[in-house]
Amino acid sequence: MNAIELKNISKKYGDNKIFDHYNLEVKQGTFLGIKGRSGRGKTTLLNIMGLLEDYEGSLKVMGEEVKPKNKKKRKELLENVIGYLFQNYALIDDASVYENLKIVSKEKNKKKEKARMLDALEKVGVAGDYLNKKIYTCSGGEQQRIAVARLMLKNCEIVLADEPTGSLDEKNTEIVMKLLTQLNESGKTIVMVSHDDAALSYCKEVIQI
What we know:
By secondary structure, the chain is of the alpha/beta class. It has one domain (about 30-55, about 80-209): Rossmann fold. The chain is about 35% helix and about 25% strand. The chain contains 7 helices and 9 strands. The strands form 2 sheets. The protein has a 5-stranded parallel sheet with strand order 6-7-8-3-9, with helices on both faces. Strand 7, helix 6 (about 170-185) and strand 8 (about 190-195) form a beta-alpha-beta unit. Helix 4 crosses helix 5 (about 140-155). It is globular, with a radius of gyration of 17 Å. This is Putative ABC transport system ATP-binding protein. GO terms for molecular function: ATP binding; ATP hydrolysis activity.
């Protein structure tokens, strides 16, 4: 089964046509890299897959067609199936690490919830008492790893990553890409937009648009 399937997708901004009857199949369990020159629509394509942009055509997620105007289905998929990893981390700067992780936590037992959070942070290499730290006190590399820990807690089936290493140095790029590889090996489908050949080398397949 395909995790994501796009058929005859069209998208334009004003008179600027980004996609014209574009087709793409993303196999379940793959790690797909998308590259291309700036302005070719890589982020737009990722946002269409992630139900963040309207479009014309047919989009299926985990075998189920999703209509652009079906807000209930979009909300359900974003809460339970699709997870995002952004270049700017999409964390709340003035909130604690705990508060940022709690956004996706569905654990009702607070003791178990904290244990799961600490376990996720340990797996991404953020050791020590980080739960009470404010996000703005963490380095860029730490913030991106915290964002990966949040994905682990969300337990989504599909991860969409938009330039996840774009602002990281070589060391942190390697750490984040190894973490994404681990997520993929655990069964998650990953689609990543990147201009970084070193990051793209971790993908199972790469397409250019």
